[in-house]
Amino acid sequence: MLGSFVGAIIGLVIIFFIIIGIFAGLVKSIKTKEVQHVYSNSILEIKLDHAIGERTQENPLNIDFDDNTPTHETAGLNDIVASIRNAATDSKIKGIFLDLGSIPAGISTIQTIRKELKDFKASSGKFIIAYGVDYTQKSYYLASVADKVYLYPEGEIFMKGLSVEIMFFKKALDKLGIQMQVFRHGRFKSFVEPYIMDKMSPDNRLQLRGLISSIWDDMLTDIAASRHLTVGNINELANNLTINSAKEAMEHNLVDSLLYPDEVKAKLKKMGQTLENENTFVGVDEYRKSFSTYKTGTGKIAIIYAAGDIISGEGDDQTIGSDRISRAIREARLDNSVKAIVLRVNSPGGDGIASDMIWREVALAKKEKPFVVSMGDYAASGGYYISCAADEIVAEPTTITGSIGVFGLLPNAKELLEDKLGITTDTVSTNAHSAAPSVSYPLEPKEAMVLQNAIEDFYHTFLKRVADGRNMSIANVDSIGQGRVWSGEQARKIGLVDTLGSLKVALQIAANKAHLSSYNTEELPTQINPFHKLLKNFSAESGKTLLKDALGEIYEPLEDITKFKDMKGVQARMPYDVSIQ
Q: Is the pTM of this model over 0.90?
């Protein structure tokens, strides 16, 4: 037995050194990217072909396994904005080149970048050139801010207006023998509709039409101003599907020239560029390493990033864990060097109790120092819940917010189990309702009443939180609540938002409230160690990627269905994702 034990120890030691050797060899064999030197007359190339998070995810290796394969940009919104601002005063940067196609980001994220580009033009006098093979409406919205907009000669611009398409599952659930038992408060709280109806309710149709009309009007106003057109002109083009070719896009002044990539480079050459090597173009990932955003100042403002679904527990960089975000707010509140707090919210909501836990920390922090909320693409339902106690709320005009309402869902799979699968259940209980709730039988009236009462209680709490935070009456909040979603522009008019603007505007407001003439910032919570995240999520993320590639457009609605397993208790969640192309 002793020999076996010693042998096992020796074996483990040998395996350990083998693993170390393999890892060392791997690190030695890969190419670690170095900070690229920024040459004179360089062009900052912005290529938004990756999912744009609120901040860049840490990657200390930043490795490239293949020199011949172009690397993809990974910069988050914070680094994209910082790069544009720095480029405005960087004498080595001659201008900006927007290499655009489909952009996997929310419209408010795009609007923030567009505003930064507009400020770049105004403050620096440097050029912005946009080029695309195909422009979606979202990417064209961004491109329109450029001095010149170029399009591939056989390319397209999709200009047709906005729409929201919702997939309904009721008939499929009926065939399976599953009935959804619904508990909600809010006539517009339409998350449950796909599971109990086969089309939109009139209330849902009303709110969606108002929402996308507001966003579309804001986009058209910006495009019309940049391209010297009118909103009426562009709407007419969209209504008649006039833009069916690159040539028609140029005829109607949506683009300036139809050019091949080599011709675009030639244009840039004439503007004083030396394009003999690829180093003349510098991407955001590489450019961001060449400068520092740290500022010396008399005080510090904490930026707390809250992005993703709101869940109980720790969460991660893609979700808002109640423990993690609460701890970050508390840390900023107790830090005497922090003079103000800005909570950056980009969330469709989620768990109701988790939202309330975060709200509590916001309310405590607000008593001690200025607290400002900056809203991103979404700050709806639970996302608004955690925002409403702030001193001031800042949103983009296209932010999707509101959705003040709650719901609960419980499937009844009795028919599926018994009639279709031949599975029966039997229970032994100590009391009349010990087994409730269960998916194997429908709720009894008293059990359903208890769940509905819980929904009503939490909705009243939600109303009170908003009423107290926004200095409104509960009746007033209820009249604009009921689960209805609003754009940032609409929300400002009804008192749910104070100011329209980006994170930059929110920071300035926080600085003014804290009487800071200059300041530096601290980003919280600390990002999760990338090695730990890699080991934890490698298999799950790889599986998701493969499934998404295989299913295409079908993947997202199926993913929504799988979220049921995480929906426990009262939910304060957006009814759907609004995707703008």
A: no
